[in-house]
Amino acid sequence: MRLFSLDERLTVCASLVREGARLADVGTDHAYLPVWLLNSGKITFAIASDINEKPLLRAKATAEKYSAQNIELRLGSGVSVLTPEDGISDIVIAGMGGEVIADILSQSELVKNPEINLILQPMTKSCELVSWLCENGFEIKSQKALTAKGKSYTVILASFAGRSTHPTEVFRIVGKLDLTDGESVKYINKQIRNLENKSRSDHSLKALVKELRLLLGEEN
User: Fold this and answer.
1) pLDDT tens digits for 103-131?
2) How far apart are CA 174 and CA 141, in angstroms?
């Protein structure tokens, strides 16, 4: 059977997963990402987890339909379903609010293994997630932006470094985005527009808007 295509968000997440990885997809829903990565040969093993039983039933149906091998389905909350013995190298948490992703990470000591890559795709409140990562000893190694269904999103690649930092307001928005990339510029412009709307009632944001525009090489 011909393998399906991933949507824009999951395509970017998949691009950040390492070759030969042992993957955990937390909040897997249909398990599209782990099944696609397994059947394309990029990873060797996957755990697809979800807090609810119905999404796991959908995940099971996807795995069976596409005859995916070396995939385990686990019911449970967040990263609590994982153990060191699983040998997970890459963890994906996608399609949730940034504050929810931060809460999931805060409840696990496993994610503090610097050898584990975290691939995080917040649907909202990405700034809050960036702040949490920096303040809790995680390093943002790279970041990508994308457009899906007319909306701009970011995907963050991070790992534990053991060094807490306090990000600037600009870094909370821009992070490690490549300013020469069109999708990154589009994402930052979206944040600028949101800040401009808020600055009508909060004039303190005008300086941040100006700084972001200068970062993009805009005079005004």
Assistant:
1) 999 999 999 999 999 999 999 999 999 99
2) 13
